[in-house]
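Lab notebook, bench 4. The sequencing result for the construct came back, and we need a structural model before the next group meeting so we can plan mutations. Quick request posted to the team channel:

Model the 3D structure of this chain.
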Amino acid sequence: MVFIGSVLVVAFVVGLVRHKATDAVERNLAYATLVLFALQVVAGALTALDGGRAGIADVHLAVGSALWCYVVAVFAMVARARPFAPESGPQHSPLESGHIQPSNSSQSLHS
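Done. Here's the predicted structure in C-alpha coordinate form:
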Protein backbone atom coordinates (compact mmCIF):
# COMPACT_ATOMS: atom_id res chain seq x y z
CA MET A 1 0.00 0.00 0.00
CA VAL A 2 2.84 2.40 0.84
CA PHE A 3 4.57 1.49 -2.41
CA ILE A 4 1.48 2.30 -4.49
CA GLY A 5 0.99 5.63 -2.73
CA SER A 6 4.67 6.47 -3.16
CA VAL A 7 4.58 5.71 -6.87
CA LEU A 8 1.48 7.87 -7.31
CA VAL A 9 2.98 10.81 -5.41
CA VAL A 10 6.28 10.62 -7.30
CA ALA A 11 4.49 10.30 -10.66
CA PHE A 12 2.29 13.32 -9.88
CA VAL A 13 5.19 15.49 -8.71
CA VAL A 14 7.55 14.49 -11.54
CA GLY A 15 4.76 15.13 -14.05
CA LEU A 16 4.26 18.55 -12.51
CA VAL A 17 7.97 19.35 -12.72
CA ARG A 18 8.10 18.31 -16.38
CA HIS A 19 4.94 20.18 -17.39
CA LYS A 20 5.71 23.40 -19.25
CA ALA A 21 2.78 25.37 -17.78
CA THR A 22 4.02 24.91 -14.20
CA ASP A 23 5.00 28.21 -12.59
CA ALA A 24 8.07 28.74 -10.41
CA VAL A 25 6.30 28.35 -7.06
CA GLU A 26 4.72 25.04 -8.06
CA ARG A 27 8.02 23.81 -9.47
CA ASN A 28 9.94 24.74 -6.30
CA LEU A 29 7.33 23.03 -4.10
CA ALA A 30 7.53 19.97 -6.34
CA TYR A 31 11.33 19.83 -6.06
CA ALA A 32 11.11 20.22 -2.28
CA THR A 33 8.56 17.39 -2.21
CA LEU A 34 10.93 15.12 -4.12
CA VAL A 35 13.78 15.97 -1.73
CA LEU A 36 11.57 15.26 1.28
CA PHE A 37 10.48 11.99 -0.31
CA ALA A 38 14.12 10.93 -0.72
CA LEU A 39 14.82 11.90 2.91
CA GLN A 40 11.77 9.92 4.00
CA VAL A 41 13.04 6.81 2.21
CA VAL A 42 16.50 7.19 3.76
CA ALA A 43 15.07 7.76 7.25
CA GLY A 44 12.77 4.75 6.83
CA ALA A 45 15.67 2.56 5.73
CA LEU A 46 17.78 3.71 8.67
CA THR A 47 14.88 3.03 11.03
CA ALA A 48 14.53 -0.51 9.66
CA LEU A 49 18.28 -1.21 9.73
CA ASP A 50 18.89 0.28 13.18
CA GLY A 51 16.19 -1.71 14.93
CA GLY A 52 13.78 1.19 15.30
CA ARG A 53 15.63 3.41 17.77
CA ALA A 54 13.46 6.28 18.94
CA GLY A 55 15.65 9.05 17.53
CA ILE A 56 15.67 7.82 13.96
CA ALA A 57 12.02 6.80 14.15
CA ASP A 58 11.18 10.35 15.27
CA VAL A 59 13.08 11.79 12.31
CA HIS A 60 11.21 9.41 10.01
CA LEU A 61 7.90 10.58 11.47
CA ALA A 62 8.82 14.28 11.24
CA VAL A 63 9.98 14.00 7.63
CA GLY A 64 6.81 12.07 6.79
CA SER A 65 4.68 14.82 8.29
CA ALA A 66 6.58 17.48 6.35
CA LEU A 67 6.24 15.41 3.18
CA TRP A 68 2.48 15.16 3.67
CA CYS A 69 2.27 18.95 4.13
CA TYR A 70 4.21 19.54 0.93
CA VAL A 71 2.09 17.06 -1.05
CA VAL A 72 -1.06 18.87 0.10
CA ALA A 73 0.51 22.26 -0.72
CA VAL A 74 1.55 21.14 -4.21
CA PHE A 75 -1.89 19.73 -4.91
CA ALA A 76 -3.57 22.90 -3.61
CA MET A 77 -1.37 25.08 -5.83
CA VAL A 78 -2.17 22.96 -8.88
CA ALA A 79 -5.89 22.94 -8.12
CA ARG A 80 -5.86 26.72 -7.61
CA ALA A 81 -4.00 27.37 -10.85
CA ARG A 82 -6.17 25.15 -13.03
CA PRO A 83 -9.85 25.68 -12.25
CA PHE A 84 -12.40 23.15 -13.39
CA ALA A 85 -13.97 24.04 -16.73
CA PRO A 86 -16.88 22.04 -18.15
CA GLU A 87 -16.23 20.34 -21.48
CA SER A 88 -19.49 21.54 -23.07
CA GLY A 89 -18.55 25.22 -22.86
CA PRO A 90 -19.54 27.94 -20.45
CA GLN A 91 -22.78 27.52 -18.59
CA HIS A 92 -24.56 30.55 -17.23
CA SER A 93 -26.72 30.77 -14.18
CA PRO A 94 -30.30 31.97 -14.70
CA LEU A 95 -29.61 34.59 -12.06
CA GLU A 96 -26.78 36.10 -14.14
CA SER A 97 -29.01 36.66 -17.16
CA GLY A 98 -31.73 38.34 -15.12
CA HIS A 99 -34.34 35.74 -16.11
CA ILE A 100 -35.85 33.84 -13.23
CA GLN A 101 -37.34 30.53 -14.20
CA PRO A 102 -40.48 29.38 -12.39
CA SER A 103 -40.10 26.48 -10.01
CA ASN A 104 -42.12 23.30 -10.44
CA SER A 105 -41.94 22.43 -6.74
CA SER A 106 -45.51 23.61 -6.03
CA GLN A 107 -46.88 21.44 -8.83
CA SER A 108 -45.09 18.34 -7.57
CA LEU A 109 -46.51 18.80 -4.06
CA HIS A 110 -50.11 18.79 -5.32
CA SER A 111 -49.75 15.73 -7.55
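Residues 33 and 68 are 9 Å apart (CA to CA).
Will bring this to the meeting.
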